[in-house]
Each structure stands twice: as C-alpha cells, then as structure tokens.
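Support case: zinc ion complex. Customer-provided input:
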Amino acid sequence: MSDRYSRQIMIPEFGEDGQQKLEDASVLVIGAGGLGTTLLYHLAAAGIGTIGIADNDIVNISNLNRQYIHFEKDLGSLKVVSAAEKLRKFNSNIQIFPLATAISKDNAIDIISQYDIVALAVDSVQARMIVNEACVQLGKPFVDGGINGFIGTSVFIEPGKTPCLACLYGTELPPIEKFSSLSPVVGTIASIEATSVIQYLLGLPVPLAGKLLYYNALLAEFEQLPLEFKEGCPICGGKKK
Ligand SMILES: [Zn+2]
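Agent response - structure generated as follows:
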C-alpha cells in the first residue's frame, strides 16, 4: 500500500483493509458545485477507487465564492470537465468518470445502479427526489447535504432500514429557488457527507443513518434529529423492509 494513505491507515478503524475497501469502492457524486467541490476532493484524497461526477452545468463567475475546484480559466466550461481535470492531477491512482448530464427520471436508475453509494451535492429538491426514488428502488444508500446561508443539513438514507427523503420532505415540491451560500459552511456540510460515505464503505456504523444533522453556523451548534417514517410514504412505503 502506498505511503500516500499512511496517515489514514494509522486510524484503528481504518487499517490496510479499510484502504482496500475504499480502493474497491465506487461513489457517484451528483453535483460538481459547492458541496461537490469539497466532497470530491475528500473522496479523491481518501483514495476512493472510482468516482463518478454527474452535472450538466457550466462554470459561472458567481460560483467561485465557494466552488474552489473550478478556477477562473474554467469559466464557461462544463463543471464535470473542470472537476475531473483537477481530480486527475490531484490523485492519478483513481478513476474519474465525468457525466455531463443532469440526473433525471429517465437516466437515474441506469446511472445510479453502476455505483455502490451516491452522494448528493445539489440545491434542487426535485433532483433530490428523483435520486431518492431511484435509490429506494435499487436499495442503494445515499447521503444528502443542504445549505441555506449559515444553516446546513445532512442526512444519510439506507433504503429498507431508514426513512427516505420523501418521509422527511413529502412529495409536494416547492419551486426551484436559489439559496445563499458561504464557502466554509458549504465545506463543513460536504465534509460531513464525505465522512458518512467513508464510514459506510469501511463497514462502520454511520451515525447519521436515519438522522438529520442540523448545523447552525451562526451559533456554532450541531443538532441531530431522528427521521420518522411517514405512514403510507409513496416512495418507501413508510416502514422498514
Ligand atoms: Zn419514505
């Protein structure tokens, strides 16, 4: 095993076996924006063997207050192309698969079924719900993160074991809106998402499975709220399998 990962292999819960598990794993990151930036760097740094990135957006100047995977030279380029270029230079031992597409009802099952786990890094509730439904159908675990100014949230969903996102948010979706975002708050939530992914892949208990983590950066406070199954949830059935 290369020295590259020696500092994390030292962690008792990790070891050489843990590193091998990450190398054998595949993670799909949906969104190469603010949350995606930190998530992708953490997953690539940790040595996840295969990372897919799905996003059809292009780099805009207003992204650069938080999306530090993109540089000024990337303005106008596809975010997945820009992100893949940085990650390949950062860690040449892993495989990066950029997908210049938005996740839709038509492609979600095909794309998600190729990966072990999904990390959501989007601001659209609609995209979350499409991924939620596909992951429940496939029995695929996923982590979600959300940001609004100084407030951040994260949940880890394990279909069949935990409530789903529709249990939490319902299926009446609000219109798409732009949320305010500040780089360190976005990075904190993305770091929490990356931690949950790594815990899952190592086979460790994921403390946020079935829980909503609520982070209030103005107060520097974290709170955990258990998710409840919603009776008759049309996506997961509202109960454990
Ligand atoms: Zn549900």
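Residues 163-164, 166-167, 230, 233, 235-236, 238 surround zinc ion (CB under 6 Å).

Case will auto-close in a few days if no follow-up is received.
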